[in-house]
Amino acid sequence: MPAKRKSGAPIKSSTKTAIPQPTYDQPRGVTNWKEAAQWLRVRGIEDIECITPDFAGVPRGKMMPSSKFTGNTSLALPSALYRHTISGDYPEETANFRYEPRDGDLKLVPDLSTLSSVPWETDPTAQVICDVVNSVGQEVPYTPRNVLKRVLSLYASKGWKAIVAPEIEFYLVAKNEDPDYQLHPPKGRSGRSIVGGQGYSIAGINEFDELIDDIYHFSEGQGLEIDTLIHEEGPAQLEINLRHGDPIALADQVFMFKRTIREAAMKHGIYATFMAKPMQGQPGSAMHIHQSVVDAKTGKNIFSLPEGGPSPEFFHFIGGMQKYVPAALVMLAPYVNSYRRLTPDMAAPVNTAWGYDNRTTAFRVPVSDAAARRVENRLPSSDANPYLALAASLAAGWLGIINEVEPTPPTEDTANEGLIELPRGLLEAVALLEGETALADVLGAEFIGLYAGVKRAEFETFMQVISPWEREFLLLNV
């Protein structure tokens, strides 16, 4: 939402002051196949959706009867799943993007702790998030969940645990079956479409009471925990804040929340969209990420010294964000549309400045006590795959700590105006990712090669579409 100091637009107050201890360390559900079979039987579950995120964060997988699920059935998906674009196209091979000649099978391994109901289905249905392994049981390094696990293992090697808390913004829009037409906010219970400028408006939330009730009910049915829900600045733009916890668990929650919110909206005859910039002239939608690091044994925040002041690791984490996040931006802003959000005068960051309680910066340090000291990354857009966005952000912070990268001085000025220091488009961002060897070491060179190839192909698909701007200004003028 707008955070321009000069305009006097509203500035959010900090609400996240809880001590950043892991919330989801203990299994969130069942822990073994015997418990899974009992869980399914007690609930009368008939079908199970075995899902895993692709590069776009789209759920892919298989559905099967519950008897098959507990009967040691092998679950396989083709490796080409991680070599196609959001539009379903397959890129041309390049030096860094290659196809598996056999298009061999990858195996799905259910993470039973994620087993939950699918509350919007009429028949008793469950879902489970799966990891991906190869034919000999080794984790496939380029899948989103495994990329994040790779980054977290680096923190674990130092005896640390990363703690995160995502904030997800999205728009409700009226149904629109023709992509040539602009999107519009839906009508609420008053029968009128809500307008912009309704930040923190309770009336704005009340316009969609029944839909929000369903979001809460669907979330409760899956064991998803919503911290707060607010109305943002855009028309029918909402934000859901999640409680802090383990990055894998929180990425799982965002993955499931997106699906949940879309399903709840569809039930009420409207769309929910996580596009970064769905409506011209309106604020974009972000996925802000609050981050801290704790000692795995003591639970103490390593960003704070014993007497309460900021530690060297805190400043180096910020320095790493400033140095490496621009090169990883394509994982935080993954589509052509994402870069429409990262522009001046639209409340989004346009450089790598940081500051204390300054929402115009890319990296904000909220007001907190020493135990809750954290860094908020305000660059990711809500269209990002949560696993990859968390992996990129935490990888940058890790590199900063390990390499002792010093940050610039904090700024108290308005930092989201004027010169743009970030990549201005998708291809530039892809090139930066491929050119940063430090990120290849942390994220995996195979992942970067595949991901970059997919992103380039998506740009080429975009270039095949003639926009209204071109018809308006070029048709009769050139």
Molecular structure report:
The protein has 14 helices and 14 strands. It has 478 residues and is of the alpha+beta class. Strands 7, 8, 9, 10, 11, 12, 13 and 14 form an eight-stranded mixed β-sheet that branches. This is Glutamine synthetase family protein. Residues 12-24 have a biased composition (Polar residues). GO terms for molecular function: ATP binding; glutamine synthetase activity.
Q: Features of this protein?
A:
478 residues, magnesium, Gln_synth_gly_rich_site, 14 helices, 31% helix, Gln_synth_cat_dom, 6-stranded mixed beta sheet, disordered N terminus, Gln_synth/guanido_kin_cat_dom, 14 strands, nucleotide-binding
Blueprint of the fold:
Blueprint: H1 33-42, E1 47-53, E2 59-65, H2 66-69, E3 76-78, E4 105-110, E5 116-117, E6 125-133, H3 144-157, E7 160-174, H4 202-206, H5 209-222, E8 226-231, E9 237-242, H6 247-267, E10 270-273, E11 287-295, H7 312-324, H8 329-332, H9 338-341, E12 354-356, E13 363-365, E14 375-377, H10 386-403, H11 426-435, H12 437-443, H13 445-463, H14 468-474
Parallel strand pairs: 1-6, 12-13
Antiparallel strand pairs: 1-2, 3-4, 4-6, 5-6, 7-9, 7-10, 7-11, 8-9, 11-14, 13-14
Helix pairs in contact: 3-10, 5-6, 7-10, 10-12, 11-13, 12-13
Pfam families: Gln-synt_C (PF00120)
Cofactor: Mg(2+)
InterPro entries: Gln_synt_N_sf (IPR036651), Gln_synth/guanido_kin_cat_dom (IPR014746), Gln_synth_cat_dom (IPR008146), Gln_synth_gly_rich_site (IPR027303)
